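Reopening closed ticket. The problem is back. First fold of the pair:
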Amino acid sequence: MPLTAPSSVGLYDGRFLAATEKVIVASMNYRLGAMGFLALPPAAPGNVGLWDQHLALSWLRGNVAAFGGDPARLTLFGESAGASSVSFHLLSPWSRPLFTQAVMQSGSANAPWALVTPEQARQIAQALGHLMGCPEGDDHAVVRCLQGKEFLGLQPLRADGGYLQGGEGRKNFFCGPLGAHLDFEEHHMGWGWGWGMCDRNVIS
């Protein structure tokens, strides 16, 4: 099961692998950006994007046999930020029993861009709240305010070529168990535009 950019992007099309090897390829989509990794605990515990992935893994484990697959031989594959996700699932006591093998390409949980500290996550979430005109000083109020915003209201933050900083001048890439991924110009939503991802809806 690949963890990477949307499965409809040609670069990650699993049909070629399925056609040439004796494997079943299942791809998942999961919430990205503020929808998937906003973290302002306890108001927003964060990492729901990783829980989306966990849910997909659970479903596949329980249903792959109906498609001719073997639930005892599941391989989780991810590239770049997806590789970090795979790494986090290898470390997770909830996810690890759901698959038997893993492939991580160009990423891992200990990559410098793979996670942020709780304090960095809080700063990023508060910065997003400020940019969206939400009240400051009350995390619950910020989360309620963001929940009341139309998703398309986030688009200008993504499309202007800018991004929120993740500390020490680096851009905020994928953020893992302690993180809050709010980068609107990373490869799922920004670099991937050249691969035709700009018209994909990240929530359905």
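Second fold of the pair, where the issue appears:
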Amino acid sequence: MNKFLKIALLLALIFSSQILLFSQDFEEEEEEVVATALQEISVSRLFEMIQEMGTDVFVQDVIVKSSAGDEKYLVDKLFFKEYLIPMPQQEVVSLYLYNVQFDLEAKHALVFSGWKFLKLNIINLKSSCNIHFEDCSTSGSYPIRIENSSFSKNMLFTGNESISSIQISGSTFANSLDFDQDFDNVQLRDCHFVADSLSFAKADDELMHAQLDFSKQAFGEIVLANLDFDNLGFENVFSLNLAGTEVDKLNLFKLKLFAADFTDLNINKALLGDSLDISHFIAVQNFDFPAENTNLPWYNLSGEKLCLLSSETAGRPEIYQAKTDHQ
């Protein structure tokens, strides 16, 4: 009996020591994920880092601020100036922006111009200035990834060459996210669009402004899921602009919108949607979609939401909604 008792005690000691080792490992792992203190660098230093790193550019745990001497990187665009960051070399480049803050003067945009990306990962970024990807392209099948980031000003993609894929999740946009470039696949999930009151108060009241803009571009597939939009009561700020857009497949799930513009939207293959909370209007003039591959419950659009935008006169279009059978 004593022999069995000794064996049991030995097993208990071994088991307890394993638990202790496991708990110590767990504590060490927790310490490893503690956020690193951010180092403040200038725009000049950012340029130097990009040039030094070759084809894999890691910018991590830094706050980028305008400093004396950064003026040499400003490009004068007549009415404004911007920091223009050209591609560091002719080969394709992977750019990783991890835990970065762009705390520049709001009037100076940061422009990545002519980059050809193998990978572009933007994780936990905060920006107080406009960020513009100009004439950029991708090589290979890796999607552009933007996660858990916050943009106080505009985020803009422009260019003539189509980009393969972009995935954006868990991020906040206070001005506009503008796709002025063709994409094969766009996925936005779990994002918030909250209009910045100071910026939109200064915007031209005679024009309509979109928080998420796909207008007049071509896309393979667009997936919008679990997005909410708050225009803070600005009547000339609408949530989603798909006017004049050409898209093969459009998927809309669990969206909270103020208003959407589907004028001249052409969907070629499929339209799927559900759980759409639209508080004001959807502009649908010349909206074309496939009859057989469309699944969009009518209750998502009911309540006098459908309208036409009249643009016969210059300036902000008038909203026409039929509220009687005669109209």
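Update: turned out to be a display glitch only; the data is intact. The longest strand covers residues 266-283. Residues 38-320 form one domain. Please close again.
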